[in-house]
Design goal:
Oligomer: heterodimer
Shape of chain B: globular
Strand content of chain B: 15-25%
Radius of gyration of chain B: 15 Å
Largest interface: A-B, 30 and 26 residues
Distance between the termini of chain A: 43 Å
Number of helices of chain A: 11
Helix content of chain B: 25-40%
Structural class of chain B: alpha/beta
Radius of gyration of chain A: 20 Å
């Protein structure tokens, strides 16, 4: 093991023992990059010093934990996937009088609001219970507020139209000088909660689980655990939506999932939950 | 030159044409994995992959998360994702914020290549109208890898190679023709060595 690897390992162990967050099964390349950013921010040239600082100064540890959930996504990112959600998946959900959606790893909320808007435009939101979870309190607070920079608006609208949006995206937002905010009646329809995919359990019984571009930050072991967790959290014939750059057919032994639409990131669970538990 | 286990390429404006020229003259039995970041709009469709695939006998694919590196394959970064090495045998993706206004960013790919391959990677930076890639190329250079930029006079947009040259981290400044000739010589590295390197 190189000295750099050992320092990284010790840092993660310090964060786990002191603050209870376990990042040991996160992707090391992304992790290393974030550690470098935190080092820059606090002007620490030596990574070994960062370990002591994180133990003594909660603000250093908090900044690292905050960095770990910084991603950059958009409303209706990958419009084709949202088109499938609007069409195929919503056709499916329509057959239920009541259904549950879990957006796991919602970060700042762009995508879970996109799912909600899709459900609204298919007239399904009244039958839906939508949960959005993240391990990071800071990200959850931002998602709950639903405030975004106005400079990003044109991109949101382009995606919305490409995803087959049937109304006007601006109807769902309040506009301020530099920001846009999701309207309160939409924000109220989502239950935001803390859930850590690394250590928390089944969240069931879901008809649709969205978890896009989250498992790319995990190593193979943690990814397998999370896929298993999703499988157990899905109702019979429930749908799992992952990022288009991700794969599950290669790693999942259980023939529990089948691809719903080729290379869309949409998979259907084939096993009835009751059967899996017997 | 050292044994090369991987070739990483970065290109921006004018890059598609440049890489097509290299591919069209690259021998079909080139075995070393090629990994490339080409700056492209986030919502671009996959048609540029078909254009690349048509120009070469190598396998060309959009890089997916946790893909294992295989011989004779060109991996291309997906629009809207950063591409990096998880370890020498495996690629990974992230949706971290754009770096140098770009996602994918050439710097991120090159930096991870420097960490994973040390002296056994060849970094090539082609035409572009920004400075993405130069810091990554510098890291490859510092770890003992070999660094090449396209001759700025030949490049459609000279800024990218020039900004790497300004960092004093470039081993060779070459035309596209010379870059291809160099790659075709690399195939002398036999597959046993590659397998050891990628294990």
């Amino acid at each position: 093991m190189s000295a750099t690897d050992i320092e990284q390992e010790l840092f993660l162990e310090a964060i786990r023992l002191k603050y209870g967050y376990d990042f040991r099964h996160y992707n090391r390349t992304s992790l290393d990059r974030r550690l470098s950013l935190v080092q820059q921010q606090f002007s620490v040239s030596d990574r070994a010093d960062l370990i002591t600082m994180a133990l003594r100064q909660p603000d250093v540890a908090n900044e690292f934990i905050r960095q770990m959930s910084i991603v950059h996504t958009d409303f209706f990112r990958d419009p084709d996937t949202f088109r499938y959600l609007r069409e195929e998946v919503s056709d499916d959900l329509q057959s239920y009088p009541y259904f549950k959606v879990w957006h796991a790893g919602c970060a700042t909320g762009e995508e879970v609001y996109s799912v909600l808007i899709t459900l609204i435009e298919r007239g399904l939101n009244k039958r839906a219970q939508v949960y959005a979870t993240d391990f990071n309190q800071h990200a959850l607070e931002r998602a709950t507020q639903g405030i975004f920079e106005r400079s990003r608006w044109a991109g949101f609208e382009d995606n919305y139209r490409a995803a087959g949006g049937s109304a006007s995206l601006s109807d769902y937002f309040d506009f301020r000088e530099d920001t846009v905010q999701v309207r309160p009646e939409l924000r109220r329809q989502i239950t935001f909660a803390r859930h850590n995919l690394v250590c928390d359990g089944v969240f069931g019984e879901m008809n649709l689980i969205m978890c896009r571009n989250v498992m790319i930050y995990f190593d193979n072991d943690l990814k397998q655990r999370v896929l298993h967790l999703f499988h157990q959290s899905l109702a019979h014939r429930g749908v799992l939506c992952i990022g288009r750059g991700e794969n599950i057919d290669l790693d999942v032994e259980l023939d529990g999932f089948s691809e719903l639409v080729p290379s869309s990131g949409l998979f259907r669970s084939n096993t009835y939950l009751g059967e899996a538990l017997q | 030159m050292n044994r090369m286990d991987c070739v990483v390429i970065g290109a921006s404006s004018g890059g598609l044409e440049a890489i097509l020229r290299i591919l069209s003259e690259l021998q079909g039995d080139f075995v070393i994995p090629l990994v490339m970041v080409l700056h492209i709009r986030e919502n671009s469709d996959d048609r540029f992959i078909q254009v690349l695939a048509a120009a070469t006998r190598l396998r060309v694919q959009l890089a997916s998360d946790k893909t294992c590196l295989e011989r004779g394959t060109l991996y291309v970064a997906r629009p809207g994702y950063h591409l990096h090495f998880n370890h020498p045998a495996q690629l990974g993706l992230s949706i971290d914020p754009p770096v140098n206004h770009s996602r994918p960013s050439i710097d991120l790919l090159f930096e991870s290549a420097a960490v994973c391959f040390g002296p056994h990677v060849l970094g090539i930076l082609l035409t572009g109208a920004n400075s993405d890639g130069s810091l990554g190329l510098q890291q490859i250079h510092e770890q003992g890898g070999h660094t090449v930029v396209q001759c700025p006079r030949e490049a459609l947009m000279p800024e990218m190679p020039e900004s790497a040259i300004a960092l004093d981290c470039v081993d060779e400044v070459l035309t596209l023709g010379q870059i291809t000739a160099m790659l075709n010589c690399l195939r002398g590295n036999d597959s046993d060595q590659l397998r050891r390197g990628g294990a």
